[in-house]
Amino acid sequence: MPVIIRHSSIESSDSGTCHISPLLRPGNIQNYQVELDLISIPESMSHQIILDQTAVGWLQILSGSGVARDENLTQDHIAYLPLGVNDEFRATEGKTKILIARIPEARKFDKNIANMPKDLVSVDWTREPVLQSEHDERKRVYMATPTLAGTRAFKGEMITYPPGASAPEHHHVGAEHFQYVISGQGTAILDGKAVRLNVGDLLYNYEHEPHSFINDTDDDFVFVEFFVPGPCDTIWSPGANLCAWLPTGEDTEGRKPSRDIGYHVHGQDDGI
Question: Given a cut of 90, is residue 91 above it in pLDDT?
Fold first, then answer.
């Protein structure tokens, strides 16, 4: 069964002046696929990012801004964390919130994990191409791919469902994944059962679990979605259109994007 972590039920602990809320742990997903923390950091305060020599991960800023390895990071950035990283993230604005994910024993998901860049690498995901769903109004922006992160241990994207948008039922084989709601509200259909999702809620899906989403509100429904490992097969339920993505030629601000991504079906990661 999918795991739903409600924002209203998240407990936090203090680490100095930071508040750490563990979202994903072996205790609630019953495996060591991925760990995820929501961390609130006051202005000028710091959080130490520590991964052991077998783990990789990523850092996404939800609000505010900060500095890591002399790189200025904002809500427009995602940073990829290499094996054994030991770095400090310092908040440069009040109410800075970040997500930090860790993938223990990453080599089991990517046998070439040692080839991932050794330094913390950040990407301005708002410069990535906006992709349009072929059969509905959804839009996608990739946040972590083999080309961007240098590993197949994970893959991430931001999905926007405009008002009235929906996607057909499907499930995945070869990876588990989660959605964290960034803005708006939407309805997840989980094996035929409707579940409401709000800002800050997290939905964790195992392999073979049928799911789909509907935005039945007047505002955009936006979530980030990460797969561990990155490569997987998507199986569409009978009668559903194959989900393919079309280039729009623009980034999130209507500019020419930093690179080109052509027409492709979800799961076709080569060159992406």
Answer: yes
